[in-house]
Amino acid sequence: MDILAPLIHEFTYQAMVHDLLPIREGEKITYRTLINEGQPDQEEKDIEISEKDRIWVESRHQHMKDIIEKLTADFQKFMDANPNFTKQNDNAASLSAIKDMMAGLPQFQSEKEAYNLHLSMAQESMDRFQKFKLPDVASLEQVRRLSGFLLIWMLTFGPTGTCDRS
User: What does the pLDDT look like over 36-53, one tens digit per residue?
Assistant: First the structure.
């Protein structure tokens, strides 16, 4: 059993969303996001994060780096399946660009809202991750963890690395 695990940040999508974002928890878990950002019908909306959300269920236990790659790849598949949309903008390299493109698709409202939600959450999580200098914290946690393991090793096996205590 790893006794230090509770002291180390986890970088899965679910962990980062719950640690870094203003998620509202109660009977429902919700996240407030902008729908149709930059459009005349722009509105703030609380969207439920639940087991009914296919993207959440498939992605929540993946590392944040992997979920960003997955969202980008899934969106690229969506663009490939909808060639009329791809003519508008060929640059889907960033989360912000994808989110902006999704705003122009009223005919795919539910899919648009789901992608908008997760693109927003992933982008805001990464923005806060950088803002709060969490890569530095993670490095420090790993050093502390390794130091703890080395201390336990030395106490258990001694400086020679053997358990012979005669």
Answer: 778 888 899 899 999 999
